[in-house]
Structures are given as C-alpha cells and as structure tokens.
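Posted in: Protein Modeling Q&A

I'm a second-year student putting together a small comparison for a lab meeting, and my supervisor asked me to include a predicted structure for YacP-like NYN domain protein. I've never done this before, so apologies if this is the wrong subforum. The sequence is pasted below exactly as I got it from our records. If anyone can share the structure token output, I'd also love a short note on what stands out.
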Amino acid sequence: MPSLSSPAGSDEPGAGTGSPRRGDAAADDDAAELPARAESAGPVSPPAPPEPPAPPVFRQPVDAAADGLASTRPSDEVRAAGEEPAGGEAAGERVTGEPAAAEQTAHEQPAHEQLADEKTAGPAGAEHTAAEHTAPERAGDGQTAHDHPAAEQEIDWEQLPEPIRARLAEVAAAALGGLTPAEVPRPLRPVAKFTPGKRARFGRGPLLAELRTSTAFRSAVLVWAGQHHPASIDLESDDPVTRAVAALLAGDERSARWVRVVARRAEDAQLRSERDVAVTRAERMAAELDRLRAENGAARAAVELARTESEAELDRLRRRLREQGVRLRQAKDAAAAALLEAEQARAAAEEAVRELTEQRDRERDRAEAERARARRALADVEIARQSAREARQADEVRLALLVDTLGGAVTGLRRELGIGGGSGPRPADLVSGASVSQGMGARVTDSAALDRLLALPAVHLVVDGYNVTKTGYPELTLAAQRERLAQQLGALAARTGAEVTVVFDGADVVSVPTVVSRGTRVLFSDPGVLADDVIRALVAAEPEGRPVVVATSDRAVADSVRRRGAHPVASAVLLARLGRI
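Accepted answer (user: helix_wrangler)
Welcome! Here is the predicted structure, written out as tokens:
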C-alpha cells in the first residue's frame, strides 16, 4: 500500500526543516538561463525600487468562518499568509541574507537586476520587504473572503498544486484497494486491478477525475481513510497539504484557503531554488573571471618573454643559414661530380645485368623443361603403383572372401552333418561309382530355401530392383518403390548378416533413397547400360565358391547367373521373405 504520509522535502513545499528543491536538471537549466540573460542585458545597473508584489498564483476567496478560524489559530494564519515560524525557513533566510520578498521581486525583474538585488540586500532589508509583500496578501485575502463568500467552493481541480494532486492520488489509490467491488466506480475498475505500488502512479488521472466528479467516491475514500489512516485527512494537521486534501475530500469551506497556501508555498520554494541557483552561478562566474584575469596576465608575461627569446634565436638562425649556404654550394659541386661518376657506373652495371638476365632466362627455360619431364615421369610411376596396388587389393579381397566362404561352409557342414573327429572310413572308400558334378546353382523356389542360403557365411544377395518392386507394389511411384525396397532389404541384411546389393536402371533417375542401411548397397546403371548387365557383372566379379543369390524373375538373367554358380530366386519368393520382417 503506498505511503500516505508526506515525504520530507518532496510533496509539500516549505514543510520540515529545509526548503524543497526541484530536480538537478531543472536547477541546471535555471542556472544556465539566468547568467545568459544577465550577459545579454549588459552591465549590471543599480537595483530598481521594488514594485508591488504580483497576486498569488492560486487565488480563491475565503469566507468569514475561515477568517474566524484563522484568528483562533495563530500558526494557521502565519501559514496562510505565506510566512514561516521563527525556527523554520524564515530563520534560514535570515542566515543566508536572501528573503522571500527578494524571490518574488527577482521573479519579475530582469536577470542583471536580480543579481544586483541579491548581492546588495541585507537581512534587515529582506525582512522589511517580506513584511511589505505579506501584509497586502493577507489584507487582500480577507477582503475577498468578505466580498465573495460563495466563491469558497469554486475550486478548479485541474489547477490544483502538484503536492495536493499527488497526495489525493495516494489516498484514493490506497482506499481503492480497500473498497468493495460495488463501491468501486466503473471507470476505476481497471485501475483497481493494478498492484498497490502502481495504482497511484499509473491510475492518477482516472482517480483525480473520479474524485472531482463523484461525490460518492469522495465520501467512500474519506470514510476509508478515516478508518485506516486518519492522519492523512486530519483537518487540524500542521501539514497544509494534509489539511487541503482533507478539506477537498470532505467538501470543507476552508479547502480553497489551504489550496492557496500550498500553491503559494510551492511558488516560494521554486523562487528560492531559482535564487540559490542564480547566486551560485554568479559566484562561480566571478571566481572564473578572476582566474581568467590571472591567467591572462601570466600569458602576457610569457608572450613577452617568448618574443625576446625568439628574436635572439632568429639572429642565431640567420648566422647559421649563411654558413649553411656556403656548405650547400660546396655540396652541390661535389654532388654533380659524383652524379657523373654514378651515371657511368650505372651504364656499365646495366649492361652486365642485361647479359646475366639473358643467361638466367635460358637456364630457367631449360630447367622448366626438365621439371616437366620429371613430373610426367613421376605421374606415370604413381599411376602404375596405384594400378598395381588396386589390383593387389582386389585379389586380396577375392581371396579373403573365398577363404571365409570355404571356412564357413566347412564349419556349417560339420555342424549340420554331425561329422566327428575323422575316425572311420573315408568318404572315398564308400563310393562305388563316380558321378559328374553339374557345377550350376540350384533354383530357389520357397522362402525356407532362401533362408538356408542367406544363413550361409559370406553370402551375397544381388537384387534386380525394378523387377522385384513392379512385382510387389507396382502402384507406387518409382521413387517410392526404390525407397521401400531399400528399407526392407536393409532390415533383411541387419537380421541375416548377408551382403545385399540392389541394382536399378539408371535412366531418368531423379532421386535416390534417402536412407540406406548398413550392409546394403544401392547401384544405378550408367546411361545406355542395362541393370541386367550390371547384375551379370556383379556375379562374374565374385570369386568361385562364394555363395551368391540373385533375386529376379527375368529368365534370361536367371539362366546366365546360374551358369556362373549363383542361385537364382524368384521375385515373389524374396517378397514373401521380406513380408515376414
């Protein structure tokens, strides 16, 4: 909940022990403006006789009842007239020698007259001027109150002094949080949703507008403040802002009087601040002027000393210049002779350089030719080494695959047939006749036989891509067929450990499978080359003895790979096996 008490030196001008000041930025602007106006006005003239004081900024008539209350409370009368107790601001003004009347006069006079008045005015003159200004104000207020008793209630809420507006917003914001939803006016319901810290700051305009227009809201705020914070609406408080707020909320006839007192104090505080800034600025400018005069005298002495020293230095430099002229003529003669000799030496050197350059160019051309021949020879040697290395690696891979195949086949046969340690008759001892090996791979007709082949060690499965996909799912696009077959073959390779190669026709291929599993190879035939020829080449490249399975329904391809020892598998059999994954 925001504080309802008045911060010292912030909300109420003239309250407490010190005079409130505006922000540093405003004080600097005033301090910069007053000397500028004083300089533009010319020399400082003697102070002019004081003019009659201007009427206060916030003037409202007071009635006879308010004057009667003022007569019973001397301290209130002093505050209403714009004066202060002897121990307050008036005592501070006597110490500094700058009275409140001088502030009002300085506000109306030009800048140079303000400075002159502030420097020449003493404590006695300040008190005399303050008395002259204060008395007409009190007399004018009393006369207005008797002449216009009904004008006491005519208060312009838009022109309320800032301390009163801020205090009203704080009291209303605090009360708004304690009212029931039915008591909150409709325009203030959005403001009631704010946090207590933001309610007075961001909802100030709606709060003041509702206080001005709604008597019910003012009464609700007054009742709530009287119950929770009675000190904030105390009509007998020593704080003029608190009295003005309480009178405005209660509709008291003394509200205009206390509003005027607060407005006058705010104006007095502003004038005092401007006066202090102007005096400080004037003192600072006087000190700066003294410093500049001292610096100017020192600079003139330094200039005179420098002039004397420069004349002596000029004479010395002239003598040296004459001596240097003689040496310069001698040096020019010597330089001309040396230049002639250098020209002759340069001509001889250029001739020698030309001959050496021609010889160097000939040697460079010959070296470049030798280096070119050497590079060609090295390239030929490297090509030969690379070819030999690749051929040796291919042979080693073929041998390794064949050895792995043979070893796996032997181990599998021993395990399948349960062959023992070799005791008993040899197989050749039991053969009564001889049979001719066909040397051809058998056709696989079911998925069980395909599983047995895929279980062989180092088996290689070669798949005719489009032959299988157009048999299994011809309704898909070619790209979708390739993607689906590659995924299924990847799963089969991961489960069986077989090496899988799928071959597609490479004509009009736009996209390739995005995901290819490990152990699966996807090949596309070159333009003008059929996928069938690539399959035959793959089978022919495998070493004899390695089990190779070719999945295709093309009879010509199946017959050709069977003659090379591969096992052809129909596309339907492979699709059936893939369907079980």
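A couple of things worth pointing out for your meeting: Strands lie at 460-464, 499-504, 520-524, 548-551, 567-569. The first helix runs from residue 24 to 40.
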